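Weekly sync, protein design subgroup
Attendees: M.S., D.O., the rotation student, P.L. (late)

Item 1: inverse folding check
M.S. brought a backbone from last month's batch and wanted to see whether the design step gives back something sensible before we order anything. D.O. pointed out we never logged the input encoding, so this time it goes straight into the notes. Structure tokens as presented (363 positions):
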């Protein structure tokens, strides 16, 4: 069972996998979470119109569904294996942080109904915010609706990355071998997404020659901090997040730290904190409770700061996720980090590998 945030992710990241699954006569199900309907630039160019309303977006979404079905046909997957959920394109992060309980229940029902042996889902390290948000939703679903059930014991969960170069993913994921005919078929599948080739032809076709990689969830879950988060450490009742904002990559908007978890009552809570790059010290307030939830203190270098997040508003029985949002265009600098407490309530110390990987400029 493959979860794709948008029509085209199946072709870009899982064409070889799907061909090999078809060859092995595996039963296949592909679930498209959005229709990719909020994709204005190619639509403006292809339809030669500037203003796009809801009807225009629905038409675009239908076109993208047709392209996805054509691509799957090329890969040998029948249209009857496909489900479209039509969740809001480009808004999965907003949904995750505001109101995703009904979506989580829907995702849980789909997985329980099909009961796959292998589940293939986006990585939380993907830099497309829809991809990483869906990854967090699916982690919540798996840990809450399937934990310790017979389904998870039998089910392998594999993650894939379409966007970004996350060391947390790429250092550990395994590449799938691909033959020349499989590569040629992958190229034909990608070409079915004509709307996407319009403005990104070279980048899209390039995916055909890049090995597909999968990382099994649970295989090596040591968390690696990425992007501007240098380290996260668990104090007795709080998380300390050290951020280092490289002036070279200062974006136009202020970075925002998101912390997501469940409260003692089981309701999802997301705390949002602006991280001003230049002030010497700042307090942040959780608008829901008006508790002071974090304090950022900038040391001599204005771009190094520590955020202390009291964990009292989150239940240690549930997963906790952290993301520092610094967008450039619509891509993130890095995805979410799963800082879920261990069974004894401790939050693991995270190490940062980006420095070695040359992703972080330190001044
Ligand atoms: Zn996508």
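Designed sequence read out in the meeting:
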């Amino acid at each position: 069972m493959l979860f794709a945030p948008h029509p085209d992710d199946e072709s870009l990241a899982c064409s070889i996998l799907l061909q090999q699954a078809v060859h092995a006569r595996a039963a296949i199900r592909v679930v498209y979470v959005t229709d990719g309907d909020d994709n204005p630039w190619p639509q403006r160019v292809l339809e030669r119109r500037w203003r796009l309303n809801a009807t225009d977006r629905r038409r675009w979404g239908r076109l993208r569904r047709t392209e996805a079905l054509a691509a799957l046909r090329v890969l040998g997957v029948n249209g009857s294996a496909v489900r479209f959920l039509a969740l809001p394109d480009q808004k999965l992060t907003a949904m995750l942080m505001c109101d995703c309980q009904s979506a989580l229940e829907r995702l849980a029902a789909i997985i329980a109904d099909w009961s796959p042996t292998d589940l293939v889902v986006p990585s939380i390290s993907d830099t497309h915010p829809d991809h990483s948000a869906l990854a967090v939703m699916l982690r919540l679903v798996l840990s809450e609706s399937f934990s310790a059930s017979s389904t998870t014991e039998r089910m392998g969960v594999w993650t894939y990355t379409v966007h970004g170069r996350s060391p947390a993913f790429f250092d550990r994921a395994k590449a799938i071998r691909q033959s020349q005919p499989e590569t040629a078929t992958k190229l034909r599948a990608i070409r079915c997404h004509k709307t996407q080739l319009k403005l990104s032809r070279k980048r899209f076709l390039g995916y055909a020659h890049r090995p597909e990689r999968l990382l099994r969830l649970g295989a090596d879950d040591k968390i690696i901090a990425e992007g501007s988060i240098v380290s996260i450490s668990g104090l007795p009742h709080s998380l300390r997040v050290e951020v280092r904002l490289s002036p070279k990559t200062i974006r136009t908007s202020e970075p925002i730290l998101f912390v997501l978890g469940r409260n003692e009552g089981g309701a999802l809570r997301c705390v949002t904190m602006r991280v001003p790059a230049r002030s010497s010290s700042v307090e942040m307030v959780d608008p829901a409770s008006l508790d002071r939830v974090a304090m950022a203190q900038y040391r001599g270098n204005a771009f190094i700061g520590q955020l202390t997040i009291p964990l009292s508003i989150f239940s240690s029985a549930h997963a906790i996720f952290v993301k520092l949002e610094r967008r450039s265009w619509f891509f993130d600098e890095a995805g979410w980090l799963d800082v879920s407490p261990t069974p004894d309530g401790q939050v693991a110390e995270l190490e940062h590998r980006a420095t070695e990987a040359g992703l972080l400029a330190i001044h």
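Discussion: Residues 279-293, 297-302, 352-363 have pLDDT under 50 and may be disordered. Residues 224-357 form a domain with the Immunoglobulin-like fold (CATH 2.60.40).
Action: P.L. to compare against the previous round before Friday.
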